[in-house]
Amino acid sequence: MTKELIERFKRIRTARFLSSGPSRKYAFVGMGQHSLGNLYPVLDYLNVPLKYICVTSEDKARLIARRYPSVRAVTSLDEILSDSEVAGVFVAASPSVHFSIASQVLGSGKALFIEKPPCSSLEELLALKQLCSAGKPIFEAGLQKRYAPAVGKLLGRLSSDRPSHYSLRYRTGAYPEGNPLLDLYIHPLDLVSYLFGEAELLCCETSPDSSLLLVLAHPGGVRGTLELSTSGSWASAGESLRVTSKAGEYLLEGMDTLCFHPGSRKIAGIPLEKTGLSSERIHYLYSRNGFNPVVADNQIVSSGYFGELKAFVDAAEGGRNRIVTSIDDIIPTYRLLDKITQRQCR
């Protein structure tokens, strides 16, 4: 009896998955390593019907036509934007052309998901906002850490455990192909803006190895120090965030582990741990399980890519899944980026 129930449940679950998916058509602009490794697999899993893939060369278009025979490979964005059947467009192209592409897509009234950075300045972001206000199209920026399950748990805890200060360390290898501030550091800067509120730039220094050292102030008296660097190695690249609150200390390692160290209990100012009367334990609030081969424990989910794409598709299909990287959401991040740029140019 138990075995029959299990098999029936599996059949129902499989049938529900195979029959689910968006009812509208979509297009994708760009086909680089990031798109192929992180975005296309999620769209395939969500059964998002791509009608077009737009690239810059005819040679690549011919290769796409062979690899994806059900998708129309084109080199003209206008062809996509003039197709009323296309409800939304995913963009992951060169950052230098993102603003131009975003302006055209939003101007057409189609929903837009665009990888970071969507533009190069606050001025450009506000120009995109005007296009959204005119036609009310959906906009989502690819700042996926906001959708990471560990970040959601940390945000929920900090809403009651008042944070006082934090330190963030973000290190990668050399990045000669672009602007580290816009292409890389936008992620940690957006993360702290999301967790602690709009930041005031108190200090901005560049170390001898070109690392960016920042001190930020947030609402409620929260202070933060950040080390953002491309002077390390890509083989050991990583990000860690340590937050001190009235309840204890939180440690977020990458997007895969979130743990909590309770504050030490005291009697007359004496830590009970030193008396042997108390032994505080580390509480693991989130940890990606590398053993189970299930969707929830996939790194694409823990990193936030799955959540951001699902939120966009749900919104484009008229659902209620709230987008947390809309233009209004990321304006504080761009204000901070502009302040850092101005300090660096002095």
Walkthrough of the structure:
With 346 residues, the protein is of the alpha/beta class. A hairpin with a 2-residue loop joins strand 14 and strand 15 (270-271). It has helices spanning 2-19, 33-45, 58-67, 77-81, 95-107, 122-135, 149-158, 180-183, 186-196, 299-302, 305-316, 327-344, and strands spanning 25-29, 50-54, 72-74, 86-91, 111-115, 139-142, 163-171, 200-206, 212-218, 222-229, 238-245, 248-253, 257-262, 266-267, 270-271, 283-287. Strands 8-9-10-7-11-12-13-16 form an 8-stranded mixed β-sheet, covered by helices on one side. The model has no long low-confidence stretch (mean pLDDT 89). The protein has 12 helices and 16 strands. The chain is globular. Helix 5 (95-107) runs parallel beside helix 6 and helix 9 crosses helix 12.
Write the layout of secondary structure elements.
Layout: H1 2-19, E1 25-29, H2 33-45, E2 50-54, H3 58-67, E3 72-74, H4 77-81, E4 86-91, H5 95-107, E5 111-115, H6 122-135, E6 139-142, H7 149-158, E7 163-171, H8 180-183, H9 186-196, E8 200-206, E9 212-218, E10 222-229, E11 238-245, E12 248-253, E13 257-262, E14 266-267, E15 270-271, E16 283-287, H10 299-302, H11 305-316, H12 327-344
Parallel strand pairs: 1-2, 1-4, 2-3, 4-5, 5-6, 7-10
Antiparallel strand pairs: 7-11, 8-9, 9-10, 11-12, 12-13, 13-16, 14-15
